[in-house]
Amino acid sequence: MLVLRFPARFPLTALFAVCLGVLNSVAFFNDNAWPLQIAVLAALFALLLRNPSGARGARAGFAFGLAWFLSGISWLYISMHTYGLLPGWFAALAVLGFCGYLSIYPALALALSGALLARGVPAWLVLYLLPLLWTLAEMLRGVIFTGFPWLATGYAQIGGPLAGFAPVLGIFGVTAASAAAAACVTALGMRTSLARLRLASVIWLIALLAAGASLSAVNWSEASGRTLHVRLLQGNISQAMKFDANELHDTIATYFALTESAPADLIVLPETAFPIFFNDLDDSVIARLRQDAASLNATIALGVPVADGPTTYTNSVVTFSPGKEALGRYDKSHLVPFGEFVPTGFHWFVRMMQIPLGDFTGGARSQPPLLIAGQTIGFDICYEDLFAAQIARQARTASILVNVSNVAWFGDSLALPEHLQIARMRALETGRPMLRATNTGMTAAIDAHGHVLKVLDPFTRAALAVDVQPMTGETPYSRVTDWPLWLLCGFAALASMVLLVRVSRARRLG
Predict the structure, then answer these.
(1) Which residue of the set 271, 340, 384, 418 is catalytic?
(2) How many whole angstroms separate alpha carbon 418 and alpha carbon 420?
């Protein structure tokens, strides 16, 4: 029985879960909003305890997830309708369908927990299992069908003490800590004769917050060599104009003007800064890039598609370094479904959208960092920094991480600050500075503790100059990535299933 009263019948429970889902997305808006998410999850878990059944849990989880994702990633509509030119109704339906798919994962976590409660498993035991089941659902969302872990629960904790778990257990460890803190709050709101349950909840809650704060104070990496002077370019080329052949000359001129305005050790242009195959660039453009690298004594990193054959092309970063004839190159390996490759059976859908270069070839899963100004620089492109384990593996041999992006596809939307939040978590997990060069925002420099050093205003044409300290040393997460959590959460799921079967069998026999 709960101290607070919650709606007990559908559709009031679903409506309440929808309100909680919207509030959950609000928790991602600001660094100081991290307690809101814990309170929201606690209320969701309490709703489950008030209405203990698998079906009710599934409905509540689905309603919560649908509101959470619709309010957090509705910017997908802009890419599909405004720039992909899908009819508005069809784009809206596609976004709704995708968010519905994502909502299956929280629904599964609450359905299994609700089924345990309905079979008479003690609430205290379910509250121990639920944070791990919730985390497992989030991890599965990050890998199934190539994965979409955007708005993973832990990102809302980037400004709070629980973010200290990131260098040890990664984003999903922060997710587990947030869900565990919420379960403790839920337990405190229960009317129960077990006073020790409340005491245990208080102890666990204090321990989680204190452990996170203590871990935040640890320096997991150390300075390596001199600082590099870096310039990150933001051309602010409208997506409506970016792939217009008539605008190509002006686009190239814009980036040359930004490049040549000041020297640096490293000058980074965003993803597809030159929206034409590298192989098709005029020889004079290549010659000028080489000349600029020499005259500025800078390595110039250019985001550009590269064709390796008539039907084979990659989304790449090509580097020009002073005194080097050979070019460096990084090819994006984790491609965006529908935007960069076409999933089987969905060619009809992609043909409806006017998205150029929609079927890239992925690069090798493991690519060495590029040696620039005496440092190893690990590049990733746009969506790739969403995948923590991939970036952690890259950071083992890189002293600086660099992301190049073009989020202009999503207009002036939440996609920009959300993507910056993701990059901050990657820096925190790996103990590496993360640099972001974007077309329209948010172009930023982030230190090894996940703090934003400098950031350009979105939708401005400028260069961000910053001195960056390369770092060395591996965090625990960089060494082992997500395997400990997979094992722990998988064990929790297996234990839940075994418990459910045994309790159900006992009830039948009794």
Answers:
(1) 271
(2) 5
- Nearest of 58, 149, 203, 190 to residue 418 by alpha carbon: 149
In the residue annotation, 242 being an active-site residue is answered as: no
CA distance 429 to 435: 15
pTM of the predicted protein model:
0.93
Asked about 382 being catalytic, the answer comes back as yes
* Rounded CA separation 268/405 (Å): 11
Q: Which of 486, 385, 387, 473 is nearest to 169 (CA)?
A: 486
- Answer for the pair 425, 418: CB distance below 8 angstroms, yes or no: no
Place of tokens 């600029």: 292
Give me the catalytic one of 99, 138, 184, 332: 332
Smallest Cα–Cα separation from 97: which of 120, 72, 66, 127? Answer: 66
Angstrom distance (rounded) from CA 138 to CA 106: 8
- In single-letter form, the type of residue at position 135 comes to T
Each residue of 109-163: pLDDT tens digit? 999 999 999 998 998 899 999 999 999 999 999 999 999 999 999 999 999 999 9
> Is the N-terminal amide bond of 11 cis, ω within 30° of 0?
yes
Q: Which two tokens stand for residue 195?
A: 């006073």
Rounded to 10 degrees, the C-alpha dihedral 197/199/200/204 comes to 140
